[in-house]
Amino acid sequence: YDAFDGAARFRPSPLQEAMVEAGTLGRKSGRGFYRYDADGKRLEPALASVRDPEDDFVRPIELAIINEAYHAAGEDVADPSDIDLALRLGAGHPVGPFERAGHLGLRTVVDGLGELSRSGSADAVERFAIAPALWSLATL
To answer: Which of 92, 102, 103, 120 is the most buried (most CB within 10 A)?
Structure first.
């Protein structure tokens, strides 16, 4: 987060910050989102009861990845085809972020990011600020 000039879209969530403060650092400490012990990896009991509906969990991540891809392309970091290939091969995604944006529709992506930016969290406006490259294509 600090390496990116404190940009809100890279800021850890309050849950992540609380976990770091509590020393639950994943495998490094034996606890985090999971407990790591002789029996293997198990979901941390305190988190086992936290079940968000898929749209509350998956959609913000998906839209943030798409938005970040448009930031990268708009800043000439990489070509859209290279970004799609990197996410498919490097992260194992079934489609890249530009392909997924095409499936969803750019207006749907922009509207979803707009909703997320109004979600009420302290940094949501900055965290989900629509990439200029995405905005310009979606509003053609």
So the answer is: 102
Predicted confidence (pLDDT) per residue in 57-112, tens digit:
788 889 999 999 999 999 999 999 999 999 999 988 899 999 999 999 999 999 99
Where does the chain show beta strands of DSSP type E?
34-37, 40-43
2: pLDDT strictly greater than 90: no
Tokens of 118: 């109004």
Domain count, the chain: 2
CA atoms of 68 and 19, how far apart (whole Å) = 25
Q: Which residues pair with 139 in a beta bridge?
A: none
Q: Do residues 34 and 58 both lie within one domain?
A: no
- How much is the pTM? 0.66
Q: What is the CATH number of the domain that holds 71?
A: 1.10.1040.50
Domain that holds residue 109: 54-138
Burial of 107 (0-12, 13-18, 19+ CB in 10 A): exposed
